[in-house]
Amino acid sequence: MxxxxxxxxxxxEHLARPWLVWTVLVAMGAWxxxxxxxxxxxxxxxxxxxxxxLGAAFACLFATAAAATPFYLSQAPPLSGYWFAGAAxxxxxxxxxxxxxxxxxxxxxxxIVLRSSMGVPVTSATARGVVLLLLAGLAVGYMAGVAERxxxxxxxxxxxxxxxxxxxRLARSIHDSVLQVLSLVSRRGAEAGGEAAELGRMAGxxxxxxxxxxxxxxxxxxxxxxxxxxxxxxxxLRRLESVHVxxxxxxxxxxxxxxxxxxxxxxxxxxxxxxxxxxxxxxPVWILVEDEGDxxxxxxxxxxxxxxxxxxxxxxxxxxxxxxxxxQGRLRDLGGTAxxxxxxxxxxxxxxxxxxxxP
Length: 359
Known about the structure:
Structural class: alpha+beta
Oligomer: single chain
Helix content: 55-70%
Distance between the termini: 51 Å
């Protein structure tokens, strides 16, 4: 817009109707303000409005025939000048690369028609203008398409991540309650025999179906820790003590954000559930709490038979996601880690480590 004003001021002696030139320039300024406000709103970034924008640009271009002399056109571009490029770039954004190419070619045809009607020879300036519009329109149209596709993919990824996290949360909750009960009923029914065996078989089938429903396709990913500190981790872990479960914790409070303390306690409880399920009755278990200042570690150790090599990977393939979801997934969501160390005949140790959030 400013360049068009400068051209009109520099070559005003070659203007046939100066009042018409300045009328066109005022109209161009008003249209510039209108389109700037309109394109800032997504609902106006439509094909009909771009067509109206192009119509205004071509009208200002052809107004040169009535407002200027032929000599003016031999010294300067049409009245619209580079102002025409605004409509061309808008077409590239809304209509893509094909729209940009079409508008650039139409500009070249319009410039040729204008010069021919005024008796001005067509020069290489027309070709340069078309090439510049082609390059700019293609680049802008391509980048606009890439940005739009990236935005859509990002929105889908955010929605997918939210669904996956909710699925993980439900899977942990189901594992900590329903699956444990179904597994217990299945095992005890098989041991009791008779009608109880049939009940146990049905419970086992439902357990398999439920594991298949909540299993499969749960990728890893970090999660944010909870805000604020103030919950003593020892209080929650003390509720897990029993005749066979011993707790060793610091004498001073181990303060953590409430969600972090609850998550660590739930993970330790899940580890104890695994001991009850896979170890002989009465297996001794120790819970050790270490406060390292910048992190808190909770270790759950048992004197059971241990986990055979490859059993965890096999359980994951079968849809048994207890360790993965109740331990590793829960700690990952809190921003920590869970490691399982076990050797056949030497028991199992689950180490839950949670870094403290920096203030």
